[in-house]
């Protein structure tokens, strides 16, 4: 596996984040997707909604992670978490993240959240991917709280290259960049290509987060992965 060195300008986490284990888990996720959608495409019918597709995929990750992936951590699906108002003691937010890989194998605990969204090669789909139930969960929502790295996983319904190209263009629109609080790298790029975190990702984006959700450097890097759903039987 190619070793990736994280070298963003705001990367005090680079030396601490367990990059190699995160890469192994993500590579296993991608490899497992290709294997199971090829062997059992009927279990990944594109007409199913996203929670059903994600739940089915988690079953394979959980079943195969130790025996075939040789991973030391575990996979969870929609693990319930809660946020409380510290003043009133009342619950203010319930969180169910799609798929998470977590491990205590290294000196630093790894919590890696993957948010799955269907994606087409047109505008309405991009807006859903970027919206309140997509990327914004990592921007002004509670997903991957205090985590420096997370991942968006696009389950593509059209030609994957067209999906990537369309999403790339939409992310570079000024209003979109501002809304998603995207940060440029030292060269002024808002899309980091190739990915600085995962060789299997098409690109990364970095997002400023509220202080109560942010990791120490104030921003979370999102890696964007693209996995094709099987063609629909005619």
What features would you describe in this structure?
- A hairpin with a 6-residue loop joins strand 4 (99-103) and strand 5.
- The protein has one domain.
- It is built from five helices and eight strands.
- Helix content is 26%, strand content 23%.
- The protein has helices at 19-39, 50-64, 123-130, 160-171, 174-179; strands spanning 74-77, 80-84, 91-96, 99-103, 110-119, 149-156, 203-208, 219-228.
- A six-stranded mixed beta sheet has the order 1-4-5-6-8-7, sandwiched between helices. A two-stranded antiparallel ribbon has the order 2-3.
- The chain has 234 residues and is α/β, with parallel strands linked by helices.
- Helix 1 (19-39) crosses helix 2 (50-64).
Head-to-tail CA distance between termini: 38 Å
Helix vs. strand class: alpha/beta
Strand arrangement in the largest pleated sheet: 1-4-5-6-8-7
The amount of helix comes to 25-40%
**What is the tally of helical segments?**
5
Indicate how many domains the architecture comprises.
Answer: 1
């Amino acid at each position: 596996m190619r070793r990736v060195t994280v070298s963003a300008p705001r990367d005090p986490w680079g030396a601490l984040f367990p990059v190699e284990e995160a890469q192994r888990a993500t590579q296993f996720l991608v490899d497992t997707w290709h294997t199971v959608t090829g062997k059992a495409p009927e279990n990944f019918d594109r007409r199913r909604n996203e929670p059903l597709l994600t739940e089915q995929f988690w079953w394979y990750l959980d079943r195969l992670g130790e025996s075939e992936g040789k991973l030391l951590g575990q996979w969870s699906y929609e693990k319930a978490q809660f946020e409380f108002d510290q003043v009133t003691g009342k619950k203010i937010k319930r969180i169910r993240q799609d798929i998470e890989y977590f491990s205590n194998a290294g000196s630093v605990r790894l919590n890696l959240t993957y948010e799955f969204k269907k994606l087409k090669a047109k505008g309405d789909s991009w807006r859903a991917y970027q919206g309140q139930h997509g990327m914004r969960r990592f921007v002004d929502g509670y997903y991957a709280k205090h985590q420096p790295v997370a991942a968006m996983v696009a389950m593509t319904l059209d030609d994957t290259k067209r999906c990537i190209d369309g999403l790339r263009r939409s992310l570079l629109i000024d209003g979109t960049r501002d809304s998603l609080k995207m940060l440029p790298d030292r060269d002024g790029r808002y899309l980091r290509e190739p990915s600085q975190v995962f060789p299997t990702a098409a690109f990364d984006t970095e997002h400023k987060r509220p202080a109560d959700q942010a990791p120490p450097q104030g921003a979370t890097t999102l890696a964007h992965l693209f996995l094709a759903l099987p063609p629909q039987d005619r």
